[in-house]
């Protein structure tokens, strides 16, 4: 039997999100059904519903930072039981079969259907996926994460996207003691980058538009904080970093940031602005620097990140909101007025 659940959806690129209902599928033999308790608001939700990444398939129920409690499991499910605290991130399925899926890199699935996004994508049967701004969801057990007991569900939610999106490149490019890491943009992703990189032992610098959030940045674990609106920042810090993680949701002058890398340093693009950015060849070639990118993380790495956060007491700074506040929350995210992740209490839908 399908289940009707309350949700918040966007019906067009310009309309505000409004309350609605959606149907969740029957719990199949390998499915886990859970009550969503909290859902984080990621800037990607805004890019998607406003059509900045191409026309969305409306109505769209956004939300891919989902945390809740299991209410039912299918007959063949072995990994979860009713009552378990679980989460779902940016995807709910993939081909399960290609080289990348086999390697646990489901986010880079190259098989049929590819990575099936938690919303604005399709299930295997072709029906649209709908995300976490809703009260329940049904997901194949292999795409569900376990939330460690020490992490409250509201703080767990943002880890499922913002957390793993920073954890994965920090691990891949070996952030740790003796490595200088800069995080550009102190928003939802950026503040997790500061906390995680500091927990890994790296020396962290925040590059923010202004010094408004400096006290926060230092409290979160950064050793240094600079304003990118000050041209002196770019002369002072030239050639300083092993790794720069760009989390900015708008276009930046990439050349200016590449110049801040040491020889062989890497700038990793994590922000996904609507428009393309130019890459000037001289700052790249001159110091054998690399420009790369990274997208969320696979299932095994997401679980590893959750366990790391429990062990190192790393959780996001959140503002829990009622669902009816979602449209204002979007405006505040767009104005860089978020400290540092909005999380919807789904009981208020
Ligand atoms: P967010 O909370 O809005 O943070 C973005 C930050 O970028 C802002 O807080 C602000 O930091 C800075 N910023 C915004 N506009 C700027 C501008 N015009 N110039 C310079 N800096 C600006 O957003 P988020 O949720 O962290 O997401 C950030 C980006 O990452 C989005 O594009 C999102 O789609 C993308 N994303 C990518 C992945 C992935 O897998 N790669 C995963 C999730 C999200 P300051 O005020 O400190 O300057
Ligand atoms: Zn996200
Ligand atoms: Zn695959």
TrEMBL record:
<keyword id="KW-0479">Metal-binding</keyword>
<dbReference type="Pfam" id="PF08240">
    <property type="entry name" value="ADH_N"/>
</dbReference>
<dbReference type="Pfam" id="PF00107">
    <property type="entry name" value="ADH_zinc_N"/>
</dbReference>
<dbReference type="InterPro" id="IPR011032">
    <property type="entry name" value="GroES-like_sf"/>
</dbReference>
<comment type="function">
    <text>Prefers aldehydes over alcohols.</text>
</comment>
<keyword id="KW-0560">Oxidoreductase</keyword>
<dbReference type="InterPro" id="IPR020843">
    <property type="entry name" value="ER"/>
</dbReference>
<dbReference type="InterPro" id="IPR002328">
    <property type="entry name" value="ADH_Zn_CS"/>
</dbReference>
<protein>
    <recommendedName>
        <fullName>alcohol dehydrogenase (NADP(+))</fullName>
        <ecNumber>1.1.1.2</ecNumber>
    </recommendedName>
</protein>
<dbReference type="GO" id="GO:0008270">
    <property type="term" value="F:zinc ion binding"/>
</dbReference>
<dbReference type="InterPro" id="IPR036291">
    <property type="entry name" value="NAD(P)-bd_dom_sf"/>
</dbReference>
<comment type="similarity">
    <text>Belongs to the zinc-containing alcohol dehydrogenase family.</text>
</comment>
<keyword id="KW-0862">Zinc</keyword>
<dbReference type="GO" id="GO:0008106">
    <property type="term" value="F:alcohol dehydrogenase (NADP+) activity"/>
</dbReference>
<dbReference type="InterPro" id="IPR013154">
    <property type="entry name" value="ADH-like_N"/>
</dbReference>
<dbReference type="InterPro" id="IPR013149">
    <property type="entry name" value="ADH-like_C"/>
</dbReference>
<dbReference type="InterPro" id="IPR047109">
    <property type="entry name" value="CAD-like"/>
</dbReference>
